[in-house]
Specification:
InterPro entries: K_chnl_dom, NAD(P)-bd_dom_sf, RCK_C, RCK_C_sf, RCK_N, Trk_Ktr_HKT_K-transport. This is Potassium channel protein. Pfam families: Ion_trans_2, TrkA_C, TrkA_N. Helix content is 54%, strand content 14%. By secondary structure, the chain is α/β, with parallel strands linked by helices. It folds into three domains: 4-90, Helix Hairpins (Orthogonal Bundle); 94-234, Rossmann fold; 260-333, Alpha-Beta Plaits. The chain starts with a helix and ends with a helix.
């Protein structure tokens, strides 16, 4: 992959040198030949471009020596400029700029989306999961090479530092539904959480923590949920040893995409036909096909419920079903028109 920073630098330097050469040529002809500004500009341009249209008048020996200097210097400079432009186009820099423009247009249209901060190993896995679910998201990444790679794959990506407020604002954080911070260090994740919470009080923030000692700090910084990579990894290894079938099933349901089956949380809206009803009378399994595994009310989970358990607004149903079944459940939990 071409070094885009060096390509841009070379192109800028060559253009600055060309501008300097034009200025020297104009000043030289005005001083040596006494030409006016217009004739000096005209003469300098035709000399540097080597089009050979002739002099505006007969030059003095000093003027001709100066012209020779301009021709030799200009030929080398123009050649360097052409080579830099070729690198700019063929090296992928132009394509990168065009793709960046496309990403910005995509990001501006996003609403109720998720912001993914950091596109390392974990961040890449997160964005792939959102891709598989066809859920709107945007990635913030600081490394230009990674940004270029993601943009070439059609990923809506924003180049910048996720700890910077301006970058989060460009990612439409005001209208975002959530943010997942997968930054390289816990310190970076703390700063992302602080900035994000300050910019959007309603934002659902999930972050990783590499050190257990960082969990409390991240919670205080505004994270709704902190995933300890060490703790989760240890628990998963033990579960894979003790309950392998359960782990395999959860992997299939949650991540593999092999089956059109997944778990989802569905919120009962105010004014829904479900409010005041029970799971038996409403016939949720019959009408939607979904299995209700649990109901969360506030911070309490109910796993066993019958006719005595009446649904309330803001209850969260933990449901298992296919995509179409879950859509039917969402219609049932929505506000009645």
């Amino acid at each position: 992959m071409a070094n885009f920073g060096e390509t841009r630098k070379g192109l800028v330097i060559s253009m600055l040198l060309l501008a300097l050469m034009l200025a020297c040529g104009i000043a030289g002809y005005m001083a040596l030949e006494g030409l006016n500004l217009t004739d000096s500009i005209y003469t300098t341009v035709i000399v540097l471009s080597t089009v050979g249209m002739g002099e505006v008048r007969e030059f003095t020996p000093n003027g001709r020596l100066f012209t020779v200097f301009l021709i030799l210097s200009g030929a080398g400079l123009v050649g360097f400029l052409i080579s830099q432009m070729a690198r700019f186009v063929l090296g992928g820099e132009l394509d990168r700029i065009l793709r960046k423009g496309q990403s910005i247009k995509m990001i501006r249209k996003l609403n109720d989306h998720v912001i993914i901060c950091g596109a390392g190993v974990q961040g890449t896995s997160v964005l792939e999961e959102f891709q598989s679910r066809n859920y709107p998201y945007v990635v913030i990444e600081k490394q230009p090479e990674i940004v270029t790679l993601l943009a070439s794959r059609g990923v809506p990506v924003l180049e910048g530092d996720a700890t910077d407020d301006d970058t989060l604002i460009k990612a439409n954080i005001a209208t975002a539904k959530g943010l997942i911070s997968c930054m390289p260090t816990d310190v970076d994740n703390v700063f992302v959480c602080l900035s994000a919470r300050n910019l959007n009080q309603r934002l659902n923030i999930v972050t990783k923590a590499d050190m257990d000692s960082s969990v409390e700090k991240l919670n205080k910084a505004g994270a709704n949920r902190v995933i300890s990579t060490k703790t989760i990894g240890s628990r998963r290894m033990v579960a894979a040893m003790m309950e392998p079938s359960v782990i395999d099933f959860l992997d299939i349901v949650m991540t593999s995409g092999k089956l059109d089956l997944r778990m989802a949380d569905v919120v009962i809206q105010e004014g829904s036909a479900m409010v005041g009803g029970d799971i038996v009378t409403l016939g949720i399994r019959r009408d939607t096909g979904c299995i209700i595994l649990a109901v969360r009310r506030g911070s309490t989970y109910t796993l066993s419920f019958g006719t005595d358990f009446l649904f309330q607004p803001d209850d969260v149903l933990i449901a298992l079903g296919t995509s179409s079944q879950l859509k039917r459940l969402e219609k049932l939990t929505a506000r009645s028109s």
